[in-house]
């Protein structure tokens, strides 16, 4: 009897922590990392709705564009979906895995404005997860560039709790070629770490209505693990979480340089930031930057961000004063 009571309690506890999650990314619905993340979140007992771009949409930030036709005009990057196929749809054997020929931010719109109300009885979503991205999205410059983060803050705009996850992989791999059960595979390690942090958030949520404060999201970046670690460097298979900030020292600002040999420009990040990225207006000032966390050792950066982009009161008033009598009060 005691055993049955304990079992019942355990089952009820598990059910209480089973959440409804929208999962998206910017690498496409058929990427290895998002499929590994879908598998692990589903195995953890969550009800996951994967809604992601048809194909690679990295670097689109918060751009909100989508297909103007109901059919595809070309094959996707992996030739998984073909020219003439529907511009949106789901896996034949899983109606919780959807693609949409659109940017990541628009996929979030597709999920909440069409898919969930039309096909899933407008189910209440507890959390939006974006990623795991194939490549890091560190510091404030990537906040506006990354499609992974763009999907995240689009969800936060809409009032949802959302977390962006990015890994140190750079391969653009197709899940049917690369997804496996190898516990040392970076995609699988990252996916399990997604479950670890989301489980902690759900546990901490308790009876609260929201997972994260309104208007707030998280940006998480995983370091190189197992096969990605350079020979002679510290081994890493279980990177621990370090709370960080989007700005600060060692922020990598996208730049460029001319290759004198080829005569064309190349990316050249300015890794020490600028006087502007060192400004401390918001947040916890003594936290390390994301880049400084992930570049050395087995550490995962976790940063909180807000979608209130207004300048702090003092700086806003200074800017207002500079405009002086040019400004008027609306009647």
TrEMBL record:
Start and end residues of each Survival protein SurE-like phosphatase/nucleotidase domain: 21-226
Any Pfam family matching the protein: SurE
SUPFAM superfamilies, per database record: SurE-like
UniProt keywords, alphabetically: Hydrolase, Metal-binding, Signal
Leader peptide range in chain numbering: 1-18
GO terms assigned for molecular function: 5'-nucleotidase activity; metal ion binding
Superkingdom of this protein's organism: Eukaryota
Keyword Metal-binding: yes
EC code: 3.1.3.5
Family that this chain belongs to: Belongs to the SurE nucleotidase family.
Protein's UniProt name: 5'-nucleotidase surE
Species this chain originates from: Wickerhamomyces ciferrii (strain ATCC 14091 / BCRC 22168 / CBS 111 / JCM 3599 / NBRC 0793 / NRRL Y-1031 F-60-10)
């Amino acid at each position: 009897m005691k055993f049955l009571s304990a079992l019942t309690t355990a089952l009820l506890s598990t059910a209480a922590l089973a959440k409804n999650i929208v999962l998206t990314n910017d690498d496409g619905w058929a990427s290895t990392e998002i499929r590994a993340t879908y598998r692990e979140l589903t195995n953890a007992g969550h009800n996951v709705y994967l809604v992601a771009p048809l194909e690679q949409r990295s670097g689109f930030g918060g751009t909100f564009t989508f297909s103007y036709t109901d059919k595809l005009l070309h094959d996707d990057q992996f030739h998984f979906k073909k020219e003439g196929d529907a511009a949106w749809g789901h896996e034949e054997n899983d109606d919780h895995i959807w693609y949409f020929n659109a940017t990541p931010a628009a996929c979030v719109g597709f999920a909440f404005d069409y898919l969930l109300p039309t096909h899933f009885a407008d189910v209440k979503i507890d959390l939006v997860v974006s990623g795991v991205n194939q490549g890091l999205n560190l510091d404030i410059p990537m906040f506006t560039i990354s499609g992974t983060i763009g999907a995240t803050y689009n969800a936060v705009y809409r009032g949802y709790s959302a977390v962006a996850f990015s890994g140190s992989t750079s391969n653009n791999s197709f899940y049917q070629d690369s997804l496996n059960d190898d516990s040392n595979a970076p995609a699988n390690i990252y996916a399990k770490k997604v479950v670890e942090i989301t489980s902690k958030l759900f546990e901490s949520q308790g009876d609260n209505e929201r997972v994260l404060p309104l208007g707030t999201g998280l940006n998480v970046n995983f370091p190189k693990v197992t096969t990605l670690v350079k020979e002679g460097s510290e081994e890493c298979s279980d990177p621990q979480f370090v709370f960080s900030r989007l700005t600060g020292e060692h922020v990598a600002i996208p730049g460029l340089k001319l290759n004198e040999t080829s005569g064309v420009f190349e990316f050249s990040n300015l890794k020490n930031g600028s006087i502007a990225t060192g400004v401390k207006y918001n947040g916890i000032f003594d936290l390390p930057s994301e880049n400084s966390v992930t570049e050395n050792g087995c550490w995962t950066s976790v940063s909180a961000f807000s979608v209130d982009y207004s300048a702090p009161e003092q700086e806003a008033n200074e800017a207002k004063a500079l405009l002086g009598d040019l400004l008027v009060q609306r009647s």
